[in-house]
Structures are given as structure tokens and as C-alpha cells.
Amino acid sequence: MKNLNELIRPDLQDIKPYSSARDEFEGEASIFLDANENPFENGVNRYPDPLQRKLKERIGDIKGVSVNQLFLGNGSDECIDLLFRLFCVPGKDRVSAISPSYGMYSVSAKINNIELNEILLNEDFSLPVDQIIESSKGSKLLFICSPNNPTANSFEVGDMLRIAREFEGIVVIDEAYIDFSDQPSLSKFIQEQSNLVISQTLSKAYGMAGIRLGLMIASTELIGWVNKVKPPYNINLLTQNFALQKLQHIGQTEKEILLIKEERSRLEKFLNAESRILNVYPSDANFILIRVEGADDLYDYLIKKGVVVRNRSKQPLCSNTLRLTVGTPEENNKLMEFINTYFS
Ligand code: PMP
């Protein structure tokens, strides 16, 4: 990779980050007259810790990384946007992403006026490694989502590392679904491969989509740069407190992940047994992509029954596909019952 400072937007090299009242004071005090807050205690009248230190310690323990290798965002969507802002000069730079994949890479590119080079996966949704290396040359960022949304497959660790070694910019591995995967996270490679950014979220396996908490794991140097451009209090107090409390009961989350994976197998078996479903793509995530003749009709039928799935038929390589999130056992029973009646 290039030197990190060469990749940062030239006009940000000398940025002086906003310094909040709580950045400037650390220590013991009982009277806080520094931040123009309302002094009357109600649980939320004070600004939250801008660097979320307590929460990062807990998440760092869980993920096996240190606090300064962690960035927390208002969902991983904020993390994606901050990477665009930090690295890409609007109207000039270019980024690359695999396709089909998560829709926010292109939305964030558009909002930031950055050209997006989409690199089609192979027909079987595997990674076209050589083509990615060739086609992404000159891009500032390269997004690889693994397990990939909506195809549900993971890519080979060795292939992703090879791409990262050959790529001159920053490789973002979006691991939103890693907790459902049989493959390990690439987070243990952030030291030896300093252009790697691992993006994860508490929205999926951890069951906290509503509080908006995403994270990035990367070298201390890179995380330091993201901290310079983030909004001062991007993780609100309610989110920090709720996450800290919920992460004390990690055993419950582990049980839920196991159950979701069992349910995924049960759904896969059922879908594979239905001959009119043309393809059930093997899943390493908490959703299953199926290809079925007349996907729009099945989609409409399920809606009539009160079940919403995601129609991915307009995505590249995905004609006639539906993406089914694994629900509770009862919800999955209903889904299977409706699919049965649809085909009978
Ligand atoms: N990455 C991927 C691959 C996703 O599918 C999603 C959500 N659909 C996100 C990121 C966004 O996650 P968050 O809720 O943390 O913003």
C-alpha cells in the first residue's frame, strides 16, 4: 500500500479536529460549567464521552483488539461515509466495490461525488481475484463484503489478503454478518496489513439495530485519522449505556446466533427440497438467497400473506432472486407454510 498520509485527502492533512469541552478536561471534578449544558440532572443532561472509552474497552475485549484500534460509528453506515470523507477528494477520486453487494457503497459514493467502479463477481458469486486486483488500480478505497450481502457467501481469507497486499489504497472488509460465518474475521491481520479496515456492526447478530452502533477495526494510525474527522459526539449516551449493559449478557447473544444458524439449516433443507426453487445459495450469514422462476409473483404472494422478504431481482447477476432473512422458528414455520401453499 501507499503510505497512509499519502492516501488521506491532501486538504485534510493539517486538519485541527473540533475540541469539545470533554476532550479538554480529564480528571476529577464535581462541578461542570464547561459545556453550556442544562445543569439539572435527568440522566441525559450531560454530553456523552466523545471517544466512548468504556464501551470500546468492552468491545475491544470481545473482539480481541485494543481501544485505539477501534472506531465506533452511528451504524456502520456512518463508518462507510467517514472513510469516503477522509480519503476521497470529491469530483476527483475513485473507489471500487464488488457487485452485487451492499447498496450503501454506491449511495455514499454518490453523496460524496466519488466515481464508483463496480466489479462483477463471477456467475457463482465467487471473487474474481485477478480482475479485482487489475480493475481496482488507482482507487482510493476497495469494498469487499464477506459474508456478502445479498449473495450470503464468504470469500477465501487468503484471496482477500492477497488483494489487500496488492492494492495501493484502503481495503474495507465489510463483516456485518461475520458472527454467523464459519470463517474467522480478518481483524487479526490489521497489524501486518495496515491498509485493512474491518467493518462490523451490532445491528445483526448482536440484536441492536435500533441503537445504531457500527465499528471499524484498523491500525492505530488509521483510527486516529478517522477520529479527527468524526462528528464530536457521534455515539449518543443512550446508545453507549444500552450497548454496555447488553454486552454484559453475551451468552444470550451466543445462544441466539446458534439458534439462527440451526434455523438457517432447517430453511435451507426445506428450500432445497422444493423442486420449483431453482437455486438455494449456501449461506454463511443470517439470510438465504434463492432463485425462483417468477420471483416477483412469489414476492407479491408473500406480501399478501403479511410476510416481507427482499426482492433482489434487479441486482446484477441476481435476476429472479429473493433474499430471505432467517426469523424466529415460528416465523420460519409460517414462511415455509406459505411457500408450500404457493407452489401447491
Ligand atoms: N454492511 C452490510 C453488508 C449490511 O448489510 C448492512 C445493513 N443492511 C450494513 C453494513 C449497515 O449496518 P448498520 O446497521 O451498522 O449501519
CATH superfamily of the largest domain: Type I PLP-dependent aspartate aminotransferase-like (Major domain)
Order of helices and strands: HHHEHEHEHEHEEEHHHEEHEEH
DSSP strand count: 11
Principal-axis shape equals: globular
Mean of all residue-level pLDDT scores: 97
Total helices: the number is: 12
Largest sheet: 7 strands, mixed
Structure description:
The protein has 344 residues and is of the alpha/beta class. The chain folds into two domains: 4-249, Aspartate Aminotransferase, domain 2; 251-343, Alpha-Beta Complex (Aspartate Aminotransferase, domain 1). The protein is 36% helix and 15% strand. The protein has twelve helices and eleven strands. The chain has helices spanning 4-7, 21-24, 53-63, 76-87, 104-111, 129-135, 157-166, 220-229, 237-246, 250-273, 295-304, 329-343, and strands spanning 70-73, 94-99, 115-120, 141-145, 170-174, 196-201, 214-217, 277-280, 287-292, 310-311, 321-325. The chain has a seven-stranded mixed sheet, with helices on both faces. It has a four-stranded antiparallel sheet with strand order 8-9-11-10, with helices on one face. Helix 4 (76-87) crosses helix 5 (104-111) and helix 6 (129-135) runs parallel beside helix 7. The longest helix is centred in the C-terminal third of the chain and has 24 residues, at 250-273. The relative contact order is 0.13. The model has no long low-confidence stretch (mean pLDDT 97). 4'-deoxy-4'-aminopyridoxal-5'-phosphate is lined by residues 75-77, 102, 145, 149, 174, 176, 201, 203, 209, 214.
